Amino acid sequence: MSFARIREVITSKDEAERIADLLIKSSGWRERVVAAKIVTAYSLYDRAAPLVETFIAAQENYTAIAIAKMLKTLDAPGTNAALKRMIDSCPNSDYGNHLKQVIHDARPV
Fold first, then answer.
1. d(Cα 109, Cα 67) in Å, to the nearest integer?
2. Maximum Cα interatomic distance, the chain, rounded to a whole number of Å
3. Residue 4, SS3 per DSSP
4. Mean per-residue pLDDT for 12-33?
């Protein structure tokens, strides 16, 4: 879903904050990916850290991509530290190495 479409569906920053908060609490990767897109579309900087924590608690490929893109797009203070925390939380395994590479390679949108 594009940022323009998100802004069509969610018409106010207050509504975006409320929906992002609900989605951030979810354990589902799809919900967390949508939350990252909403956070990016509305520049909800204060919602970025809780999303990073959801990744650290449950690493997953699509979540890694979405949150890393979100962080690199927002480019808020602490972005590099948050990306490092994500990378450091990845397990020492083939999958963990894959996640580290995905986070490293993510591009701002």
1. 11
2. 42
3. helix
4. 96
3-state helix, strand, coil in the chain (%, to 5): 75, 0, 25
pLDDT digits (tens, 9 = 90+) for 69-82: 999 999 988 999 99
Two structure tokens written together for 104: 């490293």
For the record, the structure tokens of 79 come out as 């972005």
Token reading at 11: 């018409």
pTM: 0.93
> Which residue has tokens 């020492």?
92
Q: From CA 22, how far away is CA 51, in angstroms rounded? A: 11
Q: What does the alpha-carbon distance between residue 99 and residue 15 come to, in Å, rounded to a whole number?
A: 31
Neighbours of 50 (CB within 10 A): 14
Long-range contacts, stretch 22-30, CB < 8 angstroms, 24+ apart? 24/50, 24/51, 24/54, 27/58, 29/58, 29/60, 29/62, 29/63, 30/62
